[in-house]
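Notebook entry, structure prediction.
Reason for the run: the old model in the group folder had no record of what sequence produced it. Starting over properly, with the input documented here first.
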Amino acid sequence: MTVEEFTNQMLPFKDKLFRFSYRLLGNRDDAQDTVQDVYLKMWNIRGKLKEVRCLEALMMTTTRNLCLDRLKSKSNKFITLHEEFGKGSEETPHTQIEHTDMLKWVKKEMNGLPEQQKTLLYLRDMEQLDFDEIAEITGFDLNYIRVNLSRARKNLRERILEINSYATTGIKSTN
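New structure, fully documented this time:
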């Protein structure tokens, strides 16, 4: 594989890999380093890439694995949500403040989720990948993905209801 072929095949994934890495690591520099490491790994195996059925899945999986390695070595915690959450052209300043507060809260709550649930939520809700793509990237069974996404969303939903109940009544739930 020539440099030009490699560039033409790999470069279109750069932004997606960066976004994924940034969401997992929460640090731009680490995310950029991870993407560079992914491209270096791909370059080192460029002779075998013609055999790969889905290049994007391989690159996303490699990115995920490198990010998890970085997190383990640094003992960092994951997650930021999509920065455009709640930003609409018809929103009032009050609504924007509410959405900003909700975004901060959801980020905090997602930090309490198991690492796999956070990854699955990101791939499904932020990258909008279908279940088959997520299964190929993560190596998880489709049922496992569905169950864990459901559990993660249920946990967040229950916490939102609990916080909203507390905010309107001033009485904290004892669940």
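Summary: The two ends are 59 Å apart (CA to CA).
The old model has been moved to the deprecated folder.
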